[in-house]
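tokens incoming
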């Protein structure tokens, strides 16, 4: 798997936990940058441009969750470059 040094600074998609103030909304996939303000095994996924319904700045995730996010849900440069064209809503 990946070391913490390889994970820090990566941009990934994370699923934000549902907000109790908005029970009808589905959990959202949000772009986040992985940081490590504390020692391993915890990382902080700092949200990048979250929707207004998300009240927090990010979420704490474990080393395992961070590794899975980097391997399975990375933010691809193509997505960032053509995000407006890919938004069909």
């Amino acid at each position: 798997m990946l070391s913490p040094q390889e994970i820090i600074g990566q941009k990934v998609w994370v699923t934000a936990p549902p907000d109790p103030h908005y029970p009808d909304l589905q959990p959202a996939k949000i772009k986040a940058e992985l940081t490590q303000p504390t020692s391993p095994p915890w990382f902080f996924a700092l949200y990048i441009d979250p929707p207004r319904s998300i009240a927090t700045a990010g979420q704490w995730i474990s080393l395992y969750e961070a590794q899975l996010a980097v391997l399975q849900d990375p933010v691809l440069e193509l997505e960032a470059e053509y995000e407006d064209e890919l938004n069909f809503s």
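note: The mean pLDDT is 84.
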